[in-house]
Design goal:
alpha+beta; seven-stranded mixed sheet; two-stranded antiparallel sheet; 9 strands; 29% strand; elongated
Length: 240
């Protein structure tokens, strides 16, 4: 790890001494508080002493600048591989890497939204068909994911369904199921029918009192629907 070299205490003391010398703040001055008149000493007592405020301010500012410089250097370390930086400065501009990250995130969100907008919902897996027995207040799709498992490729849309009794369901709906890139006839319809039965089975067993998350995955040649650690239904998939 490379290190930043900063002045030691002796160099800092020398710099402060040079600043004080140039300021002439502590230069010996002629004592004008007394004067000689006709071989007699007359003591003069000023009503108000004028202090060199400007010199004090300039010296204090210079010393403060040196202190800030030293503290700043100590608080900065160059970053090596596998290390973290530690700095007391607040960045004033976004770095190029951060900008690229935000741009990439925005692009991914745009693509995701485009996929949802272009999504074709068939009659057999429509909101009305899947959630007809629920007292639905609103429904929509919040995510689409493409998966590949055990030679099967399929898409999963995640529906967000809000009921009028303040329960929200997050339901994974599988569709466009293929095996070795070949469309499987009747599998999408069968998956939708199985999912509808799974939703009803879950409600019959657990009630509709809290938010529900029903997910799906393919294991070998079986499409399984689960919530938590419990499988509530499955569908045997064909390969042709």
């Amino acid at each position: 790890m490379s290190k930043v070299k900063y002045p030691d205490k002796e160099k800092i003391r020398i710099q402060i001494d040079e600043i004080l010398d140039k300021s002439e703040l502590f230069d010996a001055t002629e004592d004008k508080s007394s004067t000689y008149t006709n071989d007699k000493i007359v003591q003069l007592k000023p009503v108000k002493q004028h202090l060199p405020v400007g010199k004090y301010i300039s010296v204090a500012a210079a010393i403060a600048a040196i202190v800030i410089f030293v503290i700043s250097v100590k608080n900065y370390q160059t970053v090596g591989r596998g290390e973290q930086s530690r700095t007391s400065f607040v960045p004033l501009a976004t770095s190029s890497s951060e900008a690229d990250m935000h741009e990439s995130t925005a692009e991914e969100a745009t693509v995701k939204q485009s996929q949802i907008s272009d999504m074709i919902i068939e009659d057999y897996n429509s909101y009305e068909m899947l959630y007809s027995k629920l007292n639905v207040m609103s429904e929509g799709t919040i995510n689409i994911e493409n998966r590949t498992e055990y030679g099967y490729t399929y898409s999963v849309r995640t529906d967000n369904v809000a009921t009028r009794n303040n329960v929200v369901l997050y339901i994974d709906v599988p569709y466009d199921i293929k095996y070795n890139d070949k469309q499987l006839d009747g599998m999408d319809e069968a998956a939708a029918d199985t999912l509808k039965q799974v939703i009803q089975t879950y409600i019959d067993k657990n009630g509709l009192n809290s938010n529900i998350k029903i997910s799906c995955y393919i294991m070998n040649n079986s499409l399984e629907f689960y919530s938590g650690d419990t499988v509530y239904g499955s569908l045997t998939l064909s390969t042709e």
